[in-house]
Design brief:
Blueprint lengths: L2 E12 L2 E12 L3 E5 L6 H8 L10 E4 L5 E4 L11 H8 L1 H4 L4 H17 L14 H13 L5 E5 L7 H13 L3 E5 L3 H7 L2 E6 L2 E6 L2 H33 L3 H4 L4 H14 L24 E10 L2 E10 L5 E6 L5 H8 L8 E2 L2 H5 L8 E9 L5 E4 L12 H4 L3 H6 L16 H13 L5 E5 L7 H12 L4 E5 L3 H7 L2 E7 L2 E6 L2 H35 L12 H30 L4 H29 L5
Parallel strand pairs: 3-7, 3-8, 5-6, 6-7, 12-17, 12-18, 13-14, 15-16, 16-17
Antiparallel strand pairs: 1-2, 1-4, 8-9, 10-11, 10-14, 18-19
């Protein structure tokens, strides 16, 4: 395979903090690499340097294969809020389309529309300012994937995406003939897409072929070998130490190189590998929890003409762990705000008559039914947009507990760092600590995995499994849900909420099996109707006043019936292939074009069939 990228001696620091120094690695054609490192160690900075958005402090050398096309997905997509979706993508892709002729530009626009459709963004005229965070991410991805770049550089591509979008992206990337370097915390996504894991650790780069499980196993072996080697060095050091401590008279004749080697051994012997971990056991457990948590009875919520909750009833129990899943915009965050009482009379109306008479300036929603909360309830609510730190405050200003901060990967030399100097993941970690240290007995986590590194996620999962309180998790991270929840509230849209007992993977398997069964039954019904129509036509007798078809016309009619049935079956099969998300892009495009051809051909054949069937005497 050709070498797509060679990196030599690049470095990045922010003030006294060294992110990485003189690192180097190689990426070959076809590599699909997940970059893993703790928050704050420079993953995003490295990607930005490779994409030409930033520079290495030490110069170094970055060499891409000549003429390969590179596309970069940043965590935050830069957009004009007043532009429409398609306009935004086409304008954002000016550098890509500048050298295209009209035919290639139209082909690119067609690919963009196909990706937008697959990401469930079918109205291309919507303004960017009206989109949710997940929809904005899908717009960014559509423009990027449609570029047909040779090398994709992606920073947290699954952040803010719902699971349908994640699974489409996962399926497409796993089959695409592209080279990929991405940062991701989604372990299922990593396993299903990537063939290599690259780890930044203690200023060095380590590469592991295979998926996430293989990475964990090989990493453990590497650390064990490193520490075993250190122990050998210590044994040598002890012998050398005896020599160095020999009498001064004996030492005067000692070779200088042995003395120098002793000091090198001393440095190496002190380098035992100790992993930093987030010890949440040091954060005190939950407050006492009574028998009543939150009781919902016949709760409905409307905003405008849209229903977000339709006659929902449920009594939350002590110690249960509930996952909340559903597409972006289905009402998950609204539901959390309702049950926690995170609203005011200015936001919600409880009188249906008053709501019906509201004027156009009334922005309240309508809430009916009852929501009761236990007296001993103490809610800890980790929100997607809950961080309100003053950027000039220091870490110690936010949490004045050096021991807890140390256990949460904030060492002493970081305590006086201003919030504005922290990475996104470090801010999230600090925000999580501010919530857990208050000892909640109902813990609500709204997309907690965004921006947290994989090590922190693993430790957080272990803590939450032992959490002595009620846990509600809103997440699109399948691995996170599978490890933690007992059952799911699935938001299906239009206010419908289904309670599914089991893990998220079990739910997805159930849904896919159910949808496949429904499609199969619908296809069988369509085929049976076609066969019945064919049999009726075969036995048709010309009505009085109508001429019989000529032999040639009768043969044409019979062939038309066969053709129409064959086209219907082909169209159904192609629709199944597209909806499964298993096709590589070139075949997806051909399938979409073929469906258009089938529709046009079917219309023409049906008109001719009708003409022949209704032929009358002249």
């Amino acid at each position: 395979m050709a070498s797509y990228l060679q990196i030599e001696n690049i470095s990045k620091s922010y003030g006294p903090k060294v992110l990485f120094e003189n690192i180097g690695f190689n990426i070959n054609e076809g590599d699909k690499i997940a970059l893993i490192a703790p928050n704050g160690t420079g993953k995003t900075s490295l990607l930005r340097i490779l994409a030409g958005k930033d520079k290495s402090d030490s110069g170094g050398k970055i060499t891409f294969l000549r003429n390969i096309r590179i596309a970069f997905l940043e965590q935050e997509y830069d957009f004009d809020p007043e532009k429409e979706i398609l306009e935004q993508i086409m304008d954002h892709s000016t550098a890509l389309t500048a050298g295209m002729d009209e035919e290639n530009r139209m082909a690119y626009e067609l690919r963009v529309k196909q990706f937008l459709t697959n990401f469930n963004l079918r109205d291309f005229s919507r303004k960017m300012k009206d989109l949710s965070g997940g929809e904005i991410k899908r717009v960014a991805l559509s423009g990027m994937l449609a570029s047909e770049a040779d090398f994709f550089i992606m920073d947290e591509p699954t952040n803010h995406l719902d699971i349908d979008a994640i699974e489409f992206l996962e399926s497409w990337l796993s089959r695409a003939r592209c080279t990929l370097l991405m940062v991701t915390h989604d372990r299922y996504f990593l396993d299903n897409v990537c063939n290599t894991v690259m780890e930044m650790d203690h200023g060095a780069i380590y590469t592991y072929k295979g998926g996430y499980r293989n990475y964990l196993e090989k990493r453990e072996e590497r650390i064990a070998c490193y520490n075993a080697e250190t122990e050998k060095v210590r044994n040598i050091l002890r012998r050398e130490l005896e020599w160095i401590r020999s009498t001064p008279q004996a030492r005067t004749g000692k070779a200088k190189y042995r003395i120098d080697a002793f000091h090198e051994l001393k440095d190496r012997a002190s380098q035992v590998y100790t992993e930093k971990t987030v010890s949440l056991a040091d954060v005190a457990g939950s407050s006492r929890l009574g028998t009543k948590i939150i009781n919902c009875k016949d709760v409905s919520f409307f905003y405008g003409d849209k229903c977000y909750l339709d006659h929902f009833s449920y009594n939350f129990q002590r110690y249960e762990k509930v996952g909340i899943a559903g597409r972006n915009g289905a009402g998950k965050s609204t539901f959390i705000n309702l049950i926690t009482g995170n609203y005011t009379p200015e936001m919600v109306c409880t009188d249906p008559d008053a709501y019906a008479k509201r004027d156009s300036n009334d922005t309240r929603g309508l809430l009916t039914g009852t929501i009761e909360r236990g007296e001993s309830l103490k809610i800890g609510y980790y929100r997607q947009s809950g961080m309100t730190f003053n950027p000039e405050d220091t870490v110690l200003d936010i949490v004045n507990d050096t021991y807890l901060l140390g256990r949460f990967l904030f060492p002493h030399d970081m305590l006086n760092n201003k919030i504005e100097k922290l990475s996104g993941g470090e801010k999230r970690r600090l925000y999580l600590l501010t919530i857990l240290k208050e000892k909640p007995n109902l813990l609500i986590l709204d997309e907690p995995t965004n921006d947290l590194d994989i090590v922190t996620l693993n430790i957080l999962e272990e803590y939450l499994k032992e959490f002595q309180g009620t846990l509600i998790i809103v997440s699109h991270d399948r691995h996170f849900l599978d490890r933690l929840v007992d059952h799911l509230f699935v938001f299906c849209g239009n206010g419908v909420v289904k309670d599914f007992i089991g893990s998220y993977s079990e739910y997805r398997a159930f849904i896919k099996e159910y949808e496949a069964k429904q499609k199969s039954e619908a296809r069988s019904q369509d085929q049976e109707k076609t066969r019945k129509n064919g049999r009726r036509n075969e036995g048709r007798v010309a009505a009085p006043g109508k001429t019989k078809l000529t032999y040639k016309e009768q043969k044409e009619l019979e062939q038309l019936e066969k053709d129409i049935q064959a086209l219907a079956e082909e169209k159904s099969a192609l629709e199944d292939m597209i909806s499964n998300g298993d096709l590589p892009y070139d075949r997806l495009q051909k399938a979409s074009e073929r469906i258009g051809e089938i529709i046009a051909a079917n219309d023409e054949k049906e008109m001719r069939w009708l003409e022949l069937s209704c032929k009358t005497d002249v």
